[in-house]
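REQUEST ID: PR-0412
SUBMITTED BY: lab tech R.K.
PRIORITY: routine
TASK: structure prediction, single protein chain
INPUT:
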Amino acid sequence: MHLIIRTDGGARGNPGPAGIGVVIEDEKGKVLEEHAKFLGVKTNNQAEYEAVILGLERAKHLKADSVEVVADSELVIKQANGEYKVKHENTKPLYAQMRALVLQIGSVKFRHVKRAENEHADALSNKAMDEGMGR
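STATUS: complete
OUTPUT:
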């Protein structure tokens, strides 16, 4: 089964209150799941990685054998594709966790999009931050 995972993570302040949004779609674009999760205090990049990890964990649970991760974080996508090195100590363990999930699933592609093309996941991450901050 092929899945498309749209992810977004954000932090209000860096670090600050953080949240993630994950939308899981089938290959026809039908939404199978959506997740909004408050993370507590994290950096923006940590939140972006946490979103990808949650998406990959759900894809594994759903028994996907092919996944496309779509995100507006250029840094995470370029690190996932091997174009950038992972330098920050706070993201190295998250990168390792993501890579382990990629190996377990098998076929995973990472694609960068502009924020305007990632509105659903962005809205979920903002919802998570709002709820986590008591708004």
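NOTES: The CA atoms of residues 67 and 108 lie 5 Å apart.
REVIEWED BY: pending
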